[in-house]
Automatic annotation (TrEMBL):
Stretches assigned to the DUF427 domain: 16-106
Protein name: DUF427 domain-containing protein
PANTHER family in the record: BLR5716 PROTEIN, DUF427 DOMAIN PROTEIN (AFU_ORTHOLOGUE AFUA_3G02220)
InterPro entries, per the entry: DUF427, DUF427_sf
Pfam family name, one: NTP_transf_9
Biological source species: Pontivivens nitratireducens
Source superkingdom: Bacteria
C-alpha cells in the first residue's frame, strides 16, 4: 500500500544534530518527512552521522505507515539518552526513501539548520 498522508522531500538546507557539546550529525542530504498534521521530522543519512556515538537499543516499535523501527541511544559524559534516535531499516512501500536514514527526538537533542 502506498502511503498518501506521508510526504518525503529533500531538506532545503543543511541540518545538524548536537548534544552535550558534540556534533552527532551534519548533512546537506537530509530528508524531511511530513506525516499528516505532525511537525516535519528530519531524517539524516547514516553516512552523515557519527555512528560511534549511537548504541543500538533493544527497543523496536511498529508504525502501520512506515514499518518496523529500531532505536539508538547516545552515551554522553553527563549520561545516556536512551532511545533518542530511530530508523526504519526496511520501510514500507511508499516511504522507501527513509531506508538508511536516522531521525532524532528533538526534545532531547538539538536538531537545527546550520
Amino acid at each position: 500500500m502506498v502511503e498518501k498522508h506521508i510526504t518525503i522531500v529533500e531538506a532545503s538546507e543543511p541540518w545538524t544534530v548536537r548534544t552535550a557539546g558534540a556534533i552527532i550529525a551534519e548533512s546537506a542530504n537530509a530528508l524531511q518527512l511530513i506525516e499528516g498534521d505532525n511537525p516535519a521530522v528530519i531524517y539524516f543519512p547514516r553516512a552523515d552521522i557519527a555512528m560511534a556515538f549511537l548504541d543500538p537499543s533493544d527497543k523496536t516499535t511498529h508504525c502501520p505507515h512506515k514499518g518496523e523501527a529500531e532505536y539508538f541511544s547516545i552515551v554522553t559524559k553527563s549520561g545516556t539518552l536512551v532511545d533518542v534516535a530511530w530508523s526504519y531499516p526496511q520501510p514500507n512501500e511508499g516511504v522507501e526513501q527513509i531506508a538508511g536514514h536516522i531521525a532524532f527526538h528533538t526534545d532531547r537533542v538539538t536538531v537545527e539548520r546550520f
